[in-house]
Model the fold of this input.
Amino acid sequence: MGRRCTVCDHPERAKIELGLARKVPSRKLAQKFDVGEAAIRRHKDGHMPPQLMASLMTAATPSEIDLDQLRQSESEGILQHLVAERGRLYNVADEAERLGDFRSAIQAHRAINDNISTTAKLLGELSTGSQTTINNNLVVAPEYLDMRNELIRALRPYPEACRAVAQVLRRYEGAEPHQTGTHQKVLEHAGG
Done:
């Protein structure tokens, strides 16, 4: 006797099947309904005849409430991915600096800033405040990053000035001291 289908026994079976009919990726359904991705594919292939798929695809279009819930769950998933990616990028930047590969470290920091920019755009719908928007736009602007790197290079021979400028930059970037360890390493290497 074979194993029972976990999707067939799932209390949200109808929603899973509707998602499959509407071509929602198995991975997303698996995450949302806490079911194995392979189980969802097996269910689709073995337990959803073409007539059922056609019937579900022609069912009523989602309501505005359904669409709002989908937007919210997708936004949360994207945000979680961006946060995880940013963590990996910080590790790459730290490792590049540890190895003395400052070109790669700068590239990783640019990728981090792109990640922050994307996150800020995603959260822009949820938060208001012109000061936050101005700071986010300033810190992620490529021109600002280039200017910041040039300032640090120009100040290498002047460690005291380098530290003072770094402090001002941190204040305008809104960075807390514990978040600037990587920047501090670059400044220390630069003679700051």
Q: What stands out?
A: The chain has three domains: 13-57, 63-137, 141-192. The two ends are 71 Å apart (CA to CA). The chain is about 75% helix and 0% strand.
